[in-house]
Amino acid sequence: SRRLRDNPNLVRHVHVSYANDPKDIVITWSTIVVMPFSKVTYTSAPDPEKEFNVMATYKKFVDGGSLKATQYIYSATLTGLSSNTRYYYKVGNEQGSSDWFSFTTLPAAGTKFPLKFLTFGDL
């Protein structure tokens, strides 16, 4: 599969957010061409036999500007993740995929920990 560095416009704006359950993570990204059968591949161990796949849904978005630029916004929810665990993930399909990224889930409920976060919006 081609990688993002081979075609920087293939997979764009990859980001992670929490879902309603602290053991669930939502991965969202966009493309300028439709990429059917897109998915998130993820693992907590660098072992291809321990990788999981979650199929994504997508919606076509046309901006309101004069160019009427089109993009496709994908979303997949990873559920039942372990607490305080680093996960590695990539997004895409057979047309191409991103590089591997990572995130760490929250500590177990009731665990005290320092909370730092950054929030912004510009998609």
What can you tell me about this protein's structure?
This protein is an all-beta fold. The chain has no helices and 9 strands. The strands form 2 sheets. Strands 3, 4, 7, 8 and 9 form a 5-stranded antiparallel sheet that branches. Strands 1-2-6-5 form a 4-stranded antiparallel sheet, with no helix packed on it. A hairpin with a 6-residue loop joins β1 and β2. The chain is globular. The relative contact order is 0.27.
Secondary structure tally, helices: 0
Uncertain residue segments: none
How would you state the average pLDDT, rounded? 87
* Largest β sheet strand count, sense and barrel closure: 5 strands, antiparallel
Percent helix = under 10%
Which oligomeric state applies? single chain
- How would you describe the shape? globular
Secondary-structure content class: mainly beta
Evaluate the radius of gyration.
16 Å
Number of strands: 9
Q: How much of the polypeptide forms β-strand, as a percent range?
A: 35-45%
The CA-CA distance between the termini, in Å, is 26 Å
- Write the element-wise H/E pattern from the N-terminal end onward: EEEEEEEEE
List the helices and strands and how they pair.
Elements: E1 12-18, E2 25-31, E3 39-43, E4 52-55, E5 57-62, E6 70-78, E7 86-93, E8 96-97, E9 101-104
Antiparallel strand pairs: 1-2, 2-6, 3-4, 3-7, 5-6, 7-8, 7-9
Question: How is this structure best summarized?
Answer:
The chain is mainly beta and 123 residues long.
